[in-house]
């Protein structure tokens, strides 16, 4: 059976030819008009990029563009798809750990990179490969150890990833004058190294910031999520390990970036409160709500609290989406996990109660285009249940998962020689001038 890199080496020339042929045949065809509102509206809905590691079907052209700040969605109604597969499909088809029922993120990475479902052996080989690459350079450990615990975990995360660029295989190959055709090889190595090292970075940040003692060593016999859970201090809890497998799998999909430092930049984008930091904000909001109206509050009290949030000019965190127009399937996957593992948990019940109440209120308020919950409305309640209660840390786990989607895309960017993306901007004066009298 081929390794991931061997399989990629087979797939890349085929894909290169396919792109060449598509450009030859369709290259000069128009993709439709661009309207002024799309310039003011953050390029929403503007077809401007080709998704490479996600889906090769019609949906790839609907993917939202802003590389560092948005999720990749195949179809706004159907929801997220990984290489054309829905979340329930990948849960069914990807290999599981012995005794586990959630997909292994190793398999998801294989799927994102190749478009194919790997065998269990191929996934187990990836687990071993990542374990072997997991150590981080000593100076990066020192950078993290010297961060004050008051520095937000996401800032520490981004710092550490930027520092990893010191050992970048791509930077070295580039400096040595590697041919453009060979770019994907060192990019693949960087991607594998990055993913492999994230548990040590995330674990170190968690333990440093919250005083949780020393990191255990990586166990080369265990899968990625097991090691991540162990580094955080939850390796003895099989249900938490399962949660990590699901969590890393469903948070992964994303547009690409150019280099390791751009993944660090992506982390800074993810750390915005209306984006990935929303999972922190949801827990902050829920905790404030519980403090104000109690743990078993009535629907009426919850409604009043939601309205007071809106009337205060704030958003209801965890609801709405720039692209999706229905309940986020990643929310559904996490809800099903909760129904299986923690059906009677009070916080989970509150999350469910809010699910019944908030969409109606957002519809009545009449502004949000999507009144349904997104991925961030649920994840914090699951982590809290298992004792990972430090909400400021949550987006770090989100960022670990995102590396899978970003790097899968990055490898293909290099394989296909994708350009830097440079959307053009206009001033309002220029808009007025262009359309004067039209
Ligand atoms: N609560 C209150 N108002 C909301 C809202 C919410 N959850 N979602 C949207 N709105 C408001 C917007 O603020 C905007 O108001 P304005 O006209 O006064 O500026 C109006 O409804 C229209 O917004 P939209 O087109 O529906 O959404 P958008 O694409 O501009 O923004 C998002 C999308 C996610 C930023 C927004 O829905 C939001 O702020 N949600 C809460 C924060 C959140 O959960 N973010 C995480 C999203 C998932 C992720 O990226 N990780």
Give a list of the ligands: amidocarboxymethyldethia coenzyme *A
CATH topology: Citrate Synthase, domain 1
The CATH superfamily label reads Citrate Synthase, domain 1
> Could you give the distance between the termini?
62 Å
- Element string (H = helix, E = strand): HHHHHHHHHHHHHHHHHHH
Question: What percent of residues adopt helix (DSSP H or I)?
Answer: 55-70%
Strand content: under 5%
Mean pLDDT: 89
Number of strands: 0
Principal-axes shape call: globular
CATH architecture: Orthogonal Bundle
Largest sheet: none
Please explain how this structure is put together.
GO terms for molecular function: acyltransferase activity, acyl groups converted into alkyl on transfer. InterPro entries: Citrate_synth-like_lrg_a-sub, Citrate_synth-like_sm_a-sub, Citrate_synthase, Citrate_synthase_AS, Citrate_synthase_euk, Citrate_synthase_sf. With 438 residues, the protein is an all-alpha fold. The chain has one domain (49-422): Orthogonal Bundle (Citrate Synthase, domain 1). It contains 19 helices and no strands. Helix 7 (153-164) packs antiparallel against helix 12, helix 13 packs across helix 17 (376-385) and helix 15 (329-341) runs parallel beside helix 17 (376-385). The longest helix has 27 residues, at 184-210. The termini are far apart. Residues 54-74 have low confidence and may be disordered. Bound molecules: amidocarboxymethyldethia coenzyme *A. Amidocarboxymethyldethia coenzyme *A (AMX) binds at residues 71, 274-276, 278, 310, 315-322, 362, 367-370, 374-376.
